[in-house]
Amino acid sequence: MKINLNGNPITIKSHSLLDLVLEQGFNPVSLIVEYNQEVVKQESWEHIHIKEMDSVELLSFVGGG
Amino acid sequence: MTEDLLTLGSKTFSSRLLTGTGKFASKTLIAPMLTASGSEIITVALRRVDPRAGQENILKHIPDTVTLLPNTSGARTAKEAVRIARIAREAGCGDFIKIEVITDMQYLLPDNHETLKATQILAKEGFVVLPYVMPDITVTQQLYDGGAAAVMPLGSPIGSNQGLEMKSMIERIIETSKLPVVVDAGIGRPSQAAQAMEMGADAVLVNTAIATSHDPSLAGKAFAMAVTAGRMAFHANLAGKNRLAVASSPLTGFLRE
User: Per the CB < 8 Å rule, is B47 touching A60?
Assistant: First the structure.
């Protein structure tokens, strides 16, 4: 399935947001997921079923001034 | 003197030194710096994670007692700043937001027009908005009308350590602003922080100078002391300058031959 991840088109195997996070090799702790322009709380990741051409942003807080 | 608190939104703070989390050699230096400096507000940034660079979690290095001030760095328009602010709040970072909208990549000077637009939108949504701006009296009044919680004029370009290049304009803003004035960016030394506070600034934000020093805890403490000293001097209402000498000892009764 093709989606847009962090601004780049990619092909994924995952069907849920949780699977996608794990497939991409991220630690769910401290990760922020924006799904089609809406932030999704971590407890809901496994219930969100990704569709073709969805847009997902994986974000985190970093050092900054 | 009664307790001299800084009020931003509905919160009050006893420290007038805001700090940042950028540029530390190790993130483990942040918590000790916060303890040493007594800073109660610290900035963080939001970024896309990069699988190759590894995942960073800056929040675990910041004690719960410290108020997070996410910035909108990376935003080039009001729209992008608004999006970052909403994500930061929904991600549990609270409702403080530092608006930073920049398209000038050489000097990193802020776009006041887009910053004002973002401020107006986010203030209506209940954010405590701290906009980072070029020092401008008219914009400061417009930010006040737009619901900002403070105005953050720059001293000099971000990370430049050049101190208060904008001194005269900042003085005029302090004189006329109805908002608390937080001097942000370019403060490279405690003496420059003290100077801003002596002028009557309500607070200063220092990141680079503390983070890139060899001992951020010691630097943080030095900045905190300078901020306190400058604030006390402001309250003491120091006398002005004289062109000629004015003797401190009596000019009579000299023991002369």
Answer: yes
A65 within some domain: no
Q: What tens-digit pLDDT sequence spans chain B (257 residues)?
A: 578 999 999 999 999 999 999 999 999 999 999 999 999 999 999 999 987 777 778 999 999 999 999 999 999 999 999 999 999 999 889 999 999 999 999 999 999 999 999 999 999 999 999 999 999 999 999 999 999 999 999 999 999 999 999 999 999 999 999 999 999 999 999 999 999 999 999 999 999 999 999 999 999 999 999 999 999 999 999 988 899 999 999 999 999 88
Residue B45 in contact with partner chain A when CB distance is under 8 A: yes
In a mutational test of the A interface, the residue from B21, B28, B42, B48 whose CB has the highest number of chain A CBs within 10 Å is: B48
**Residues of B tagged active-site:** 98
| B45, B57, B83: residue with CB nearest A64 | B45
Nearest alpha-carbon partner for B56 in B22, B7, B89, B80: B22
Q: Provide CB contacts within 8 A for B199, sequence distance 6+.
A: B167, B170, B171, B174, B234
The ipTM, to two decimals, is: 0.92
Domain that holds residue A48: 2-59
Count: domains in chain A: 1
**First vs last Cα of chain B: how many Å apart?**
48
Q: Do B46 and A6 touch (CB under 8 A)?
A: no
**CATH ID of B6-49+56-236, from 2.140.10.30, 3.40.190.10, 2.80.10.50, 3.20.20.70:** 3.20.20.70
Domain ranges of chain B: 6-49+56-236
Nearby residues of B123 by Cβ (< 8 Å), 6 or more positions away = B129, B146, B147, B148, B149
Query: Does B48 contact A at CB distance below 8 Å?
Result: yes
Instruction: Supply A2's token pair.
Output: 């093709």
